[in-house]
User: Fold this.
Amino acid sequence: MSWEGERPADNLAAGSAFNEMFQRYDDDPETPATDLIAAYCEALTHRWPDDDTAPWSVTPQPSGPFLYLCVVWSMAKEVSAYTAELAASMRLVCYDPQEEMLLP
Assistant:
């Protein structure tokens, strides 16, 4: 959902970039997170600690320059808005694979 790099030109290019990152890094969770992605993940888990009220359906696990988030449906809009805002402030790309669109 978020990664380091140049922002793709459009949603189609972002979808391709997302698929490539997902295949590369989701299959290898042992790849250490980059400093920026680690800081991003830390900020998200600070906002929503991994407890019974957290929005995570799976604990966030960054890998390399990529972080894929699994969020419970009931909190998807709230989490999406916050993650997009935080990603933008950190100059990360944020993409919603369910909506197939870049987030501002």
